[in-house]
Amino acid sequence: MDAPSPGSLRRAARTDRALKIPAFRLYFAGSVISVPGNWMQMTAQAWLVLDMTGSPLMLAWVTTMQFLPIMLFSLIGGAVADRFRRRELLIWTQCIGAVQAAALALIVASGAVEMWHILALAALLGTVSAIDQPLRQAFVADLVPQEALPNGIALGALAMNIGRVIGPALGGLVLAATGPAAAFTLNAITFVLFAICLGTIRPGHLARVGRTGRTTLLADVREGLGFALNSPMIQVLLVATGFIGLFGQNFSTMVPMVAELIVHATRAQFGLLNSCLGLGSLCAAFTVSRSGRPTMGRILFAGLAFGILLIAIALTERLWLSCALFFCVGAAAVTFSTSIQTSFQLLTPVHMRGRLASMVTLLIVGSSPIGAILTGIMAEQAVWAAVALNGVMCIAGIALATRKAWGLAVNRRLPAI
């Protein structure tokens, strides 16, 4: 038998390097358990809102209430992630998430659900996510050494997208079989299971460093922003991320609109569209986990493809073609976001990783309230035009980032990631 080539050995090491670490394996397993429940809840919640109101604008308001706290508090959440023990904080966020999902399940099962219940509980979940999401990104760096960090972040994205594939499909099945309350109950259970996994982790590698002085959280936020705004490479990444996050990543608003008002899908077909989105994301996450350190070319190309695909989605009414396009847009979205997250962590000092991760969270997730409301307002007149305009704005943002990156490259101020 021929000996494996050095190149194949290097590729294998990149693929499973983080999984060789027991603490990361527990985190990865907990994520694989938890994320499908989150997607089940989002699928069931979106369908419940449209079933109760029939209004794309009301669905946009629910999305806004869920993501507005992330916009307002994610930078504070990043400062918290750099100051306190991340594992313990993550356990608390899972416990609060479980209470939120269980409360929603009880209200819906009782038949007393009103829109204000959904809006209030969505706001609670968003507040938890403002801390949870920067924590997750920074926590990976606590579990794996620097040389395994790109692989660890990519595998974290892989776990997220395994859930994105399984969750919506299960959500559609549960909706059809028993209704939304069961989906919310299952999500509460997955929150608890992830908390148990986190409780068993004993990190052997801790990337955090001790703080040398007492400062306020706002001072920590200012320090992180100052570092980001004085780094040419991070400036380029912020521009690209801002446009893609604001105009492209509000899938929880756009997918139900496309499913019900463009493709005219059934409940099961709605789950299928979400699953195609997740399957594309899963394939991209697996590919990125094998590709090593990200490049600026990969980031900009993925962002450009994302915008073009949104325009194509807006212009088709055929289910099979929409499924194919959602697969591709999911792949582009994950390639972009995972490469951005990895770049920020590699370019950031150890003691600022939570704060820089919170900027990614703010721009990709926290901007959803604005993007959802803009999309919802335009969709009241024409859904296809709202989705297409989002694609056009994504392309414009990538063009702006490319121009800035080109200027830095010409002046030799654009370092390698």
Automatic annotation (TrEMBL):
The keyword Iron-sulfur does not apply. The keyword Transport applies. It is found in: Cell membrane. GO terms for molecular function: transmembrane transporter activity. Its main location: membrane. GO terms for cellular component: plasma membrane. Residues 1-417 form the Major facilitator superfamily (MFS) profile domain. The chain crosses the membrane at residues 21-39, 59-77, 181-204, 225-248, 268-288, 295-313, 319-344, 356-377, 383-402. InterPro entries: Bacilysin_exporter_BacE_put (IPR022324), MFS_dom (IPR020846), MFS_trans_sf (IPR036259), TM_effector (IPR010290). Coiled coil: none annotated. It is a multi-pass membrane protein. PROSITE patterns: MFS. Keywords: Cell membrane, Membrane, Transmembrane, Transmembrane helix, Transport. This is MFS transporter.
